[in-house]
Amino acid sequence: VPGSPSSASVSFPTVHTTSPTISSLPVFGEAPFLDSRQSPSRSFVPGTVFPTSPDEMGKRRKTDPADSPSLQSLQGTIIDDPQLSPLVVKHHHSFTSNLGLPSQSYSPLQSPILSDTGSTRIDDDEEAQRKRYPADKAYFIAKEILTTERTYLKDLEVLTVWFRSAIIKENAMPEGLMTLLFSNIDPIYEFHRAFLKEVEQRLALWEGRSNAHVKGDYQRIGDIMLRNMHTLKEFTGYLQKHDEVLTELEKATKRLRKLETVYKEFELQKVCYLPLNTFLLKPIQRLMHYKLILGRLCKHYSPDHRDYVDCKDALKEVTQMTAQL
User: Are 305 and 221 contacting, i.e. CB atoms less than 8 angstroms apart?
Assistant: First the structure.
Protein backbone atom coordinates (compact mmCIF):
# COMPACT_ATOMS: atom_id res chain seq x y z
CA VAL A 1 0.00 0.00 0.00
CA PRO A 2 1.57 3.34 -0.94
CA GLY A 3 2.39 5.57 1.97
CA SER A 4 2.18 2.75 4.50
CA PRO A 5 5.16 2.05 6.76
CA SER A 6 5.52 -1.45 5.37
CA SER A 7 6.10 -0.13 1.88
CA ALA A 8 8.93 2.18 2.95
CA SER A 9 12.27 0.78 1.98
CA VAL A 10 15.38 2.20 3.55
CA SER A 11 18.76 0.89 2.64
CA PHE A 12 21.70 1.14 5.02
CA PRO A 13 25.26 1.08 3.83
CA THR A 14 27.16 -2.01 4.75
CA VAL A 15 29.88 -1.36 7.31
CA HIS A 16 32.76 -3.77 7.31
CA THR A 17 34.43 -4.15 10.67
CA THR A 18 37.49 -6.07 11.50
CA SER A 19 37.55 -7.61 14.93
CA PRO A 20 40.83 -6.86 16.65
CA THR A 21 42.85 -9.71 17.94
CA ILE A 22 43.89 -10.05 21.51
CA SER A 23 47.47 -9.35 20.62
CA SER A 24 46.57 -5.87 19.42
CA LEU A 25 44.44 -4.94 22.45
CA PRO A 26 46.02 -2.83 25.22
CA VAL A 27 46.47 -4.74 28.44
CA PHE A 28 45.49 -3.20 31.77
CA GLY A 29 46.06 -5.13 35.01
CA GLU A 30 46.03 -8.90 35.00
CA ALA A 31 43.46 -9.30 32.19
CA PRO A 32 40.91 -11.31 34.17
CA PHE A 33 38.74 -11.66 31.01
CA LEU A 34 41.28 -13.83 29.16
CA ASP A 35 39.72 -17.16 28.16
CA SER A 36 42.28 -19.90 28.56
CA ARG A 37 40.43 -22.18 26.11
CA GLN A 38 40.67 -19.68 23.30
CA SER A 39 43.76 -19.20 21.24
CA PRO A 40 45.12 -15.67 21.23
CA SER A 41 45.09 -15.71 17.47
CA ARG A 42 41.30 -15.86 17.40
CA SER A 43 39.39 -12.69 16.74
CA PHE A 44 37.43 -10.97 19.44
CA VAL A 45 33.69 -11.41 18.99
CA PRO A 46 31.61 -8.43 20.12
CA GLY A 47 29.03 -9.26 22.75
CA THR A 48 31.03 -12.08 24.29
CA VAL A 49 30.61 -12.22 28.07
CA PHE A 50 33.74 -12.99 30.03
CA PRO A 51 33.83 -14.25 33.62
CA THR A 52 34.71 -11.31 35.78
CA SER A 53 32.94 -12.08 39.06
CA PRO A 54 34.63 -14.18 41.78
CA ASP A 55 32.01 -16.95 41.37
CA GLU A 56 32.58 -17.22 37.64
CA MET A 57 36.33 -17.18 38.10
CA GLY A 58 36.01 -19.97 40.67
CA LYS A 59 33.99 -22.05 38.24
CA ARG A 60 36.56 -21.43 35.54
CA ARG A 61 39.33 -22.58 37.86
CA LYS A 62 37.51 -25.85 38.56
CA THR A 63 36.64 -26.60 34.94
CA ASP A 64 39.99 -25.52 33.51
CA PRO A 65 42.93 -26.43 35.80
CA ALA A 66 46.41 -25.15 35.18
CA ASP A 67 47.70 -28.46 33.84
CA SER A 68 44.93 -28.89 31.23
CA PRO A 69 46.04 -29.27 27.60
CA SER A 70 44.17 -26.15 26.54
CA LEU A 71 45.94 -23.96 29.09
CA GLN A 72 49.33 -25.50 28.25
CA SER A 73 48.66 -24.83 24.62
CA LEU A 74 47.72 -21.25 25.49
CA GLN A 75 50.91 -20.79 27.47
CA GLY A 76 53.09 -22.00 24.66
CA THR A 77 51.25 -19.90 22.12
CA ILE A 78 51.51 -16.68 24.13
CA ILE A 79 55.14 -17.04 25.05
CA ASP A 80 56.18 -18.08 21.52
CA ASP A 81 54.16 -15.33 19.86
CA PRO A 82 56.65 -12.64 18.78
CA GLN A 83 53.90 -10.02 18.47
CA LEU A 84 53.15 -9.97 22.20
CA SER A 85 54.98 -7.47 24.35
CA PRO A 86 56.82 -8.53 27.55
CA LEU A 87 54.05 -6.81 29.53
CA VAL A 88 51.47 -9.26 28.14
CA VAL A 89 53.67 -12.22 28.98
CA LYS A 90 54.25 -10.88 32.50
CA HIS A 91 50.55 -10.46 33.20
CA HIS A 92 49.82 -13.83 31.66
CA HIS A 93 52.20 -15.60 34.03
CA SER A 94 50.56 -13.82 36.96
CA PHE A 95 47.12 -14.85 35.76
CA THR A 96 47.97 -18.51 35.11
CA SER A 97 49.76 -18.82 38.43
CA ASN A 98 46.61 -17.66 40.22
CA LEU A 99 44.62 -20.28 38.33
CA GLY A 100 47.06 -23.08 38.98
CA LEU A 101 47.69 -22.37 42.70
CA PRO A 102 44.40 -21.45 44.35
CA SER A 103 45.59 -22.81 47.70
CA GLN A 104 48.33 -20.17 47.87
CA SER A 105 46.00 -17.21 47.53
CA TYR A 106 46.42 -14.40 50.05
CA SER A 107 44.31 -14.80 53.14
CA PRO A 108 42.94 -11.76 55.06
CA LEU A 109 43.85 -13.58 58.26
CA GLN A 110 47.49 -12.90 57.42
CA SER A 111 46.91 -9.18 57.91
CA PRO A 112 49.33 -7.59 60.43
CA ILE A 113 46.34 -6.31 62.38
CA LEU A 114 45.05 -9.87 62.92
CA SER A 115 48.42 -11.55 63.23
CA ASP A 116 50.20 -12.44 66.45
CA THR A 117 52.47 -9.43 66.04
CA GLY A 118 49.52 -7.02 65.91
CA SER A 119 47.89 -8.74 68.86
CA THR A 120 51.08 -8.35 70.89
CA ARG A 121 51.23 -4.65 70.07
CA ILE A 122 47.62 -4.11 71.19
CA ASP A 123 48.24 -6.04 74.40
CA ASP A 124 51.27 -3.87 75.15
CA ASP A 125 49.22 -0.70 74.66
CA GLU A 126 46.49 -1.95 76.98
CA GLU A 127 49.05 -2.94 79.59
CA ALA A 128 50.63 0.52 79.45
CA GLN A 129 47.20 2.12 79.82
CA ARG A 130 46.40 -0.08 82.84
CA LYS A 131 49.63 0.97 84.47
CA ARG A 132 48.88 4.63 83.85
CA TYR A 133 45.24 4.47 84.96
CA PRO A 134 44.86 1.99 87.84
CA ALA A 135 41.81 -0.24 87.90
CA ASP A 136 41.40 -0.16 91.68
CA LYS A 137 37.96 0.99 92.83
CA ALA A 138 39.62 3.39 95.29
CA TYR A 139 41.23 5.17 92.34
CA PHE A 140 37.87 5.85 90.72
CA ILE A 141 36.44 7.11 94.01
CA ALA A 142 39.42 9.45 94.33
CA LYS A 143 38.82 10.54 90.73
CA GLU A 144 35.23 11.30 91.64
CA ILE A 145 36.42 13.51 94.50
CA LEU A 146 38.60 15.41 92.02
CA THR A 147 35.95 15.98 89.35
CA THR A 148 33.18 16.93 91.78
CA GLU A 149 35.53 19.26 93.65
CA ARG A 150 36.22 21.15 90.45
CA THR A 151 32.49 21.56 89.83
CA TYR A 152 31.91 22.63 93.42
CA LEU A 153 34.62 25.30 93.18
CA LYS A 154 32.96 26.68 90.04
CA ASP A 155 29.69 26.87 91.95
CA LEU A 156 31.34 28.89 94.72
CA GLU A 157 32.73 31.27 92.11
CA VAL A 158 29.17 32.12 91.09
CA LEU A 159 28.94 33.92 94.45
CA THR A 160 32.52 35.00 95.17
CA VAL A 161 33.26 36.30 91.66
CA TRP A 162 30.19 36.85 89.50
CA PHE A 163 27.51 37.90 91.97
CA ARG A 164 29.96 40.08 93.88
CA SER A 165 30.93 41.82 90.64
CA ALA A 166 27.26 42.46 89.74
CA ILE A 167 26.31 44.07 93.06
CA ILE A 168 29.52 46.13 93.27
CA LYS A 169 28.95 47.45 89.76
CA GLU A 170 25.44 48.64 90.65
CA ASN A 171 26.23 49.44 94.31
CA ALA A 172 23.07 47.55 95.14
CA MET A 173 23.85 45.88 98.50
CA PRO A 174 24.32 47.53 101.91
CA GLU A 175 27.81 47.26 103.41
CA GLY A 176 26.68 45.25 106.41
CA LEU A 177 24.99 42.61 104.29
CA MET A 178 28.00 42.31 101.99
CA THR A 179 30.25 41.71 105.00
CA LEU A 180 27.91 39.06 106.39
CA LEU A 181 27.67 37.29 103.05
CA PHE A 182 31.26 37.27 101.80
CA SER A 183 33.04 37.01 105.14
CA ASN A 184 31.51 33.55 105.44
CA ILE A 185 31.86 32.33 101.85
CA ASP A 186 35.34 33.68 101.02
CA PRO A 187 37.31 31.60 103.61
CA ILE A 188 35.50 28.45 102.51
CA TYR A 189 36.27 29.21 98.86
CA GLU A 190 39.99 29.68 99.57
CA PHE A 191 40.11 26.45 101.54
CA HIS A 192 38.63 24.42 98.70
CA ARG A 193 41.01 25.98 96.18
CA ALA A 194 43.96 24.63 98.18
CA PHE A 195 42.22 21.30 98.74
CA LEU A 196 41.57 20.87 95.01
CA LYS A 197 45.21 21.53 94.18
CA GLU A 198 46.30 18.89 96.68
CA VAL A 199 43.90 16.30 95.25
CA GLU A 200 45.10 17.05 91.72
CA GLN A 201 48.71 16.49 92.73
CA ARG A 202 47.88 13.20 94.41
CA LEU A 203 45.96 11.88 91.41
CA ALA A 204 48.82 12.87 89.12
CA LEU A 205 51.21 10.81 91.25
CA TRP A 206 48.69 7.97 91.45
CA GLU A 207 48.49 7.84 87.65
CA GLY A 208 52.25 8.31 87.25
CA ARG A 209 51.89 11.47 85.15
CA SER A 210 54.30 13.65 87.14
CA ASN A 211 57.38 13.33 89.32
CA ALA A 212 57.98 9.81 88.08
CA HIS A 213 61.42 9.83 89.69
CA VAL A 214 59.90 10.29 93.16
CA LYS A 215 59.31 6.99 94.92
CA GLY A 216 56.54 6.63 97.46
CA ASP A 217 53.15 5.17 98.26
CA TYR A 218 50.76 7.61 96.59
CA GLN A 219 47.95 5.24 95.60
CA ARG A 220 45.65 6.34 98.40
CA ILE A 221 43.50 9.34 99.31
CA GLY A 222 42.58 8.85 102.97
CA ASP A 223 45.53 10.83 104.34
CA ILE A 224 44.56 13.89 102.28
CA MET A 225 40.91 13.61 103.26
CA LEU A 226 41.73 13.28 106.95
CA ARG A 227 44.04 16.29 106.97
CA ASN A 228 41.62 18.53 105.08
CA MET A 229 38.51 17.44 106.94
CA HIS A 230 40.26 18.34 110.14
CA THR A 231 41.03 21.79 108.71
CA LEU A 232 37.50 22.23 107.39
CA LYS A 233 36.20 21.61 110.88
CA GLU A 234 37.51 25.06 111.80
CA PHE A 235 34.97 26.59 109.37
CA THR A 236 31.99 25.09 111.15
CA GLY A 237 31.14 28.49 112.60
CA TYR A 238 30.89 29.97 109.11
CA LEU A 239 28.70 27.12 107.94
CA GLN A 240 26.36 27.58 110.89
CA LYS A 241 25.55 31.11 109.69
CA HIS A 242 24.04 30.04 106.38
CA ASP A 243 20.50 30.37 107.77
CA GLU A 244 21.23 33.92 108.91
CA VAL A 245 22.72 34.86 105.52
CA LEU A 246 19.70 33.52 103.62
CA THR A 247 17.27 35.32 105.91
CA GLU A 248 19.01 38.70 105.72
CA LEU A 249 19.43 38.49 101.94
CA GLU A 250 15.74 37.77 101.48
CA LYS A 251 14.75 40.71 103.69
CA ALA A 252 17.08 43.07 101.79
CA THR A 253 15.73 42.10 98.37
CA LYS A 254 12.18 42.83 99.53
CA ARG A 255 13.17 46.16 101.04
CA LEU A 256 15.58 47.47 98.36
CA ARG A 257 14.19 47.70 94.84
CA LYS A 258 17.63 48.12 93.28
CA LEU A 259 18.99 45.01 94.97
CA GLU A 260 15.91 43.07 93.92
CA THR A 261 16.45 44.09 90.28
CA VAL A 262 20.13 43.10 90.32
CA TYR A 263 19.26 39.83 92.07
CA LYS A 264 16.62 38.84 89.50
CA GLU A 265 18.70 39.92 86.50
CA PHE A 266 21.65 37.93 87.77
CA GLU A 267 19.54 34.77 88.08
CA LEU A 268 18.66 35.14 84.38
CA GLN A 269 22.30 35.04 83.36
CA LYS A 270 23.83 31.86 81.98
CA VAL A 271 26.41 31.59 84.74
CA CYS A 272 23.65 31.36 87.36
CA TYR A 273 22.16 28.05 86.21
CA LEU A 274 20.40 27.50 89.57
CA PRO A 275 18.46 29.79 91.93
CA LEU A 276 20.94 31.99 93.74
CA ASN A 277 20.06 30.79 97.22
CA THR A 278 20.92 27.23 96.10
CA PHE A 279 24.56 28.25 95.67
CA LEU A 280 24.56 29.53 99.24
CA LEU A 281 23.68 25.99 100.39
CA LYS A 282 26.48 24.33 98.38
CA PRO A 283 28.99 24.15 101.30
CA ILE A 284 26.50 22.17 103.39
CA GLN A 285 25.74 19.83 100.52
CA ARG A 286 29.45 19.33 99.92
CA LEU A 287 29.97 18.09 103.45
CA MET A 288 27.25 15.49 102.96
CA HIS A 289 28.95 14.38 99.76
CA TYR A 290 32.27 13.95 101.59
CA LYS A 291 30.48 11.78 104.12
CA LEU A 292 29.07 9.51 101.41
CA ILE A 293 32.40 9.18 99.58
CA LEU A 294 34.34 8.35 102.74
CA GLY A 295 31.72 5.77 103.64
CA ARG A 296 32.20 4.09 100.27
CA LEU A 297 35.97 4.02 100.75
CA CYS A 298 35.61 2.42 104.19
CA LYS A 299 33.36 -0.27 102.72
CA HIS A 300 35.80 -0.89 99.87
CA TYR A 301 38.92 -1.22 102.02
CA SER A 302 39.55 -4.15 104.28
CA PRO A 303 40.38 -3.25 107.92
CA ASP A 304 44.03 -4.14 107.38
CA HIS A 305 44.43 -1.85 104.35
CA ARG A 306 46.95 0.95 104.77
CA ASP A 307 44.34 3.59 103.82
CA TYR A 308 41.46 2.27 105.89
CA VAL A 309 42.32 3.98 109.19
CA ASP A 310 42.72 7.44 107.61
CA CYS A 311 39.43 7.12 105.74
CA LYS A 312 37.63 5.99 108.87
CA ASP A 313 39.01 8.90 110.93
CA ALA A 314 38.12 11.38 108.17
CA LEU A 315 34.59 9.99 108.15
CA LYS A 316 34.33 10.65 111.88
CA GLU A 317 35.40 14.26 111.39
CA VAL A 318 32.78 14.88 108.71
CA THR A 319 30.08 13.14 110.73
CA GLN A 320 30.76 15.44 113.68
CA MET A 321 30.55 18.54 111.47
CA THR A 322 27.27 17.56 109.85
CA ALA A 323 25.78 16.81 113.26
CA GLN A 324 26.40 20.43 114.31
CA LEU A 325 24.65 21.98 111.31
Answer: no
